[in-house]
Give the backbone structure.
Amino acid sequence: MSANAPITQDVMTIPRKLPEGKINLVGLTRDQLRETLIEHGTPEKQAKMRTGQIWQWIYQWGVRDFADMTNLAKAYRAQLAEHFVIEIPEVVTRQVSEDGTRKYLCRIAGGHEVEVVYIPEEDRGTLCISSQVGCTLTCSFCHTGTQKLVRNLTAAEIVGQVMMARDDLEEWPTPGAPKDETRLLSNIVLMGMGEPLYNFDNVRDAMKIAMDPEGISLSRRRITLSTSGVVPEIARTAEEIGCLLAISFHATTDETRDVLVPINKRWNIEELLAALSSYPNASNSERITFEYVMLDGVNDSDEDAHRLIDHIKRHNIPAKINLIPFNEWPGAPYKRSSNNRIRAFANIIYQAGYASPIRKTRGEDIMAACGQLKSATERARKSRKQIEAEAGLNS
Ligand code: SAH
Ligand code: SF4
């Protein structure tokens, strides 16, 4: 075992198959849930009340078995169980880092896998969730971007990641117990695998469920959506989800950003900044986070720092700048900037009057850090290919 090996790695192998023909109630909006109940025999007159009751059982108490929904008549519970299931992604592996960061590999329908990371901090606990399997975009510094397999996650699979983590953290309250205000899982960031704005409707529905006061009830201010810059969807994020926004900015000239974040060729820096300057929710208390990955000799010069400030000032964007030390992955074409360089860059930003926290790298020993997420099966497949290539088996 190397010094960096994870402390524990539990493997859960019991598959939880979705019984054929049954409908999963997880991920349905309240309206969809109501309609679904009516379609399967709930009298219309009762539907609103039943929706509220079932909603609370699923999202407030974390109940997965209709038999446990004790305020519903026994016959009705049996009727529900005949048609429906309450299903969330299945945990395949769970790793715990030396620093307490937890990384889960979850299996979803079709045998795909997504990664979810839980990062405990003193005053909060953040769950980093995925919105797609892989990513259609190909940012050159991002490990997820090298994964070929892509599919959008359903709303059930997105909010299911939050429910899965609450299971693991044992954070579902018990009926009658006083409400615990100090939550282990207090924040969500959409910074896992995938581009959330290319899966807008499912991300929106899932986050609406996570925010619903009669369920998981996370404040919209505790949810941050990170996008590489899908300009036409940015305004909708404020209007339809209402969460905080983070932008994978990463470069200060179009020439460099075209390479690092290729979506820049579609919507360039000026178009992106214009969309941000009119972001409906942006204010001093709800600033937009500019994520900036520090790549040695690529985007980390003093000139870059000054240009970054100039962009933000010119467009008058309430902003904070989050400097991310590059997390290297096997075969990555970049190196992390030195600590001195990162500090010098941060200082220029700070002198200009902006917050410039340097993101702590967490969970590095279990490859749980930002941008390193990539499913294990994909990794295994790749490395087999590499091995074959090296052995000359492909020729
Ligand atoms: N697709 C979205 C959200 C997922 S990526 C987006 O790009 O914003 C979450 C964050 O991790 C982004 O800011 C991304 O640029 C950053 N990231 C990706 N690879 C990284 C790496 N190897 N090291 C550090 N940050 C990385
Ligand atoms: Fe996709 Fe975001 Fe990675 Fe770019 S940085 S490839 S948008 S996940």
User: Anything to note?
Assistant: Confidence is low (pLDDT under 50) at residues 1-17, 380-384, 390-395. Residues 230 and 266 are 9 Å apart (CA to CA).
